[in-house]
Amino acid sequence: MSQRKFDFYIVPTPIGNIQDITLRAVEILKEVDLIACEDTRVTQKLLNHYQISTKTVSYHKYNEKDRIEFFINELKNGKKIALVSDAGTPMICDPGSVLLEELLKQGFSVTSLPGACAVTTFLSQVPRDDEKFVFIGFIPRVESQIKELVLNYSNVNMVFYDSPERILKTLNVIKKVRADAKIALGRELSKLFEEIFIDNIDDVINHFKDGIKGEIVCMIYSEASELEDIELKEKILSLKDLGYKDKDISIILSTLYKINKNKVYKMLITK
Fold first, then answer.
1. Domain extents in the chain
2. pLDDT tens readout for residues 64-107
């Protein structure tokens, strides 16, 4: 099947499992003349695995402005270029914005391939009542800035990245302003020791008190979700006191209050 050709390709790479790359991504990486990557050593492991011999050029936050002229000249000479990050989809907490802005200004054709992204991989296995969320990238290191973000986004699910070395400190800061916060924490996504842990903030901190490994994606549930859960639990207890069976309770609450029946049932079986 013939495909439209572009000057510049934004190509997602696996976030952990090396097999999580699309056939089209492999094809594009073989066809282009240059691959711009954060760390050529990291990308080379992926290229070697898929027998891709395309030349790589380093492109990271410390040299992205200096590299613009080089890439522009290569494109003007008819070369095709792909941009990758060490893991996941470029431009999501990775360099590329400065270059992309210049390419669009100069009229080069650009496309992005669909593929792995830690945020969507994480959210696709985290139950939520509301599809709305805010993604803030890597959470700040400064305590006052963390508190400000948590308070400003208390009414929406807030998703962020953090390092394994800092996440427990971050959670303890969050606890200072949202003591009853519900947290979803994902680590080692797509890898052998992948884990998604969802609970109140105290239990999450306790679960990982001895340390945590792997890159972190975390979500603070909105206060609205927490209040709804509390109200739902109260309704369940009231119906139980009246002698209703679990199946009947799930039907009653889902019908009267437009609540997902599976959510009610999960609360019932975990009582």
1. 8-116, 119-221, 226-269
2. 888 999 999 999 999 999 999 999 999 998 889 999 999 999 99
Distance between CA atoms of 59 and 181, rounded to whole angstroms? 39
User: Dihedral, CA atoms, 149, 152, 157, 162, nearest 10 degrees?
Assistant: 0
Distance CA 207, CA 187 (A): 13
Helices (H) and strands (E) in the chain, counts: 11, 10
CA 133 to chain centre: 11
What DSSP string describes 148-181? HHHHHTTTSEEEEEE-TTTHHHHHHHHHHH-TT-
CB 267 within 8 A of CB 232: yes
Measured distance CA(58)–CA(188) in Å, rounded = 26
How much is the pTM? 0.80
Residue closest to 269 by CA, chosen among 244, 251, 246, 249? 246
Give yes or no for a contact between 39 and 58, defined as CB atoms under 8 angstroms apart: yes
Domain 8-116 has CATH 3.40.1010.10: yes
**Domain 119-221 -> CATH class:** alpha beta
Amino acid at the residue 23: L
**What are the Cα distances from residue 261, in Å, to 51, 221, 222?**
49, 20, 21
Q: Express each pLDDT in 145-182 by its tens digit.
A: 999 999 999 889 999 999 999 999 999 999 999 998 99
Backbone angles phi, psi at 129, to 5 degrees: -85, -25
Cα 103 to Cα 31: distance, rounded to the nearest angstrom: 20
Q: How far apart are CA 269 and CA 120, in angstroms?
A: 28
Confirm whether 8-116 and 119-221 share one CATH topology.
no
